[in-house]
């Protein structure tokens, strides 16, 4: 016979609902009682059933994290801090990835008994935020936003980083500047492009259409864009990349083509992933506090779950340029 | 009022338990009935409750994946294929990480209502496999094994890869060979060390104790080990690393010290992660089919859940050397 919460209640001298509340650290139960219940549960070897707990509380303490795909080198740097921050609040992380049909994604999130969702990917035209709002499932935008549905968000403000990048490019004599940007239907790509164009304009520069390449935020995009630029009769002398993973692809393409970085070509990333600062990479990039941004998104979501009525909050994290070895004087 | 399974049952003209079975694709319900129930559920906008489903079936269709930590660059290459393979079986992946106390890890896995666990980390002396066995929670060893408790496993056989590495090292004239190995209480580290020593012995070589460095399978270990070797009066001319992530750290340390690879020092990895073949890295490494190994582990676990009685199976994946740019002739 397995031990039930009734056995624990009897041993601790409390009611059965108090056992459930105590074991999920409900503040309505005094700390002393919570400890007494926990000791009784330990003594009996009682393990609360996850499913039973979910039915009795209406809460599963599970949070979904929606990502584009799982292979992208950017995501471990989101998954790890999100996991730990949610764990510190007593919540578990469930991974979800995008599929072709956004309606299917939304249905999976909704039918999964989640208490909330971190949207780390979302196209401007996605139905996911609409569906989550309609089903009253709390969510927070991470590194993306959508105008269609307002929600709490934790994003990067690329303004200062792009301004410093444009100043550094100008100072090093670059005039033929290219950009490898993310998908045009993501707020991240749009915001970075606007910030870059404005910053270059302040230096009296602009990016012609032929020096723009767009694609998913992955190494293949950086590789293909750089290969394409290098075949031009007059290639750019510098490439600003939508993120570090794209920049790694750009570095690879330059190396394969025998083009020296930064002697022949300068490359700038965005994110400052740990590998960007590796001695064998030394990528010049735009940095912000990615860890703090993930933790903030997790906190905003838990706050929203616990206080559905509070005003919306946008946390915008400032950015700045970190100069390493991939930006140099124009050849 | 929210729609219940009784409403669906009425519309579809079946019993309520049939609705639950049909929606979880139970083969005891005919395909035609399953489709009728699904259509009725769609029409009513019925979403089965995850918690209710778990209670009625005793299955949650959730699989835990236990990892050492989430920051390690090796893990995305496990998480992605595990996620997709389990999804194809109708199961979801839940991430779990090790904490200091193995008993706590075991308790978390057990109390989480998981149907099974992929143990992608396990020390030889861990109590986790024992606890899972005692609680009859099915599990599979991935890339690790433990003698304490036998279970299905999907592992690499390092023999052929290490043999080819030793032959290549010998051919290139290396005699002073060092190794940066994983933790001595992991089967992975132990097996790779044994295979390396045997392969070197066949070439008439051995590794003296001063040329051995041990630590977690991360870049910091590779960096520290290489830095240490490079301060020796007679440093090694080649370093065999416990995995690619360790080798990336070794490459970084060599670059920081101004030591040319492979001109002054050869470095060999293990895993052949996608970034090992990047033009800016070009790591010589020991490869195996990591994706297939992850899928195999997921399949073994699902088989075990569905057929608890079948004989144990060990899937050992063969390995081989891939020569790129970090192995060269002895200086």
Automatic annotation (TrEMBL), chains A, B:
Compositional bias per record (Polar residues), positions renumbered to this chain: 1-19
Region listing for Disordered, in residue ranges: 1-33
SMART domains xrefs: HTH_LACI
Keywords per UniProt: DNA-binding, Transcription, Transcription regulation
Gene3D superfamilies reported in the protein's UniProt record: 3.40.50.2300, lambda repressor-like DNA-binding domains
Family annotation (InterPro entries): HTH_LacI (IPR000843), LacI/GalR-like_sensor (IPR046335), Lambda_DNA-bd_dom_sf (IPR010982), Peripla_BP_I (IPR028082)
GO molecular function: DNA-binding transcription factor activity; transcription cis-regulatory region binding
Biased composition (Basic and acidic residues): 22-33
Coiled coil: none
Sequence ranges assigned to domain HTH lacI-type in this UniProt record: 3-57
Keyword Secreted attributed: no
Name of this protein: LacI family transcriptional regulator
Protein source organism: Arthrobacter crusticola
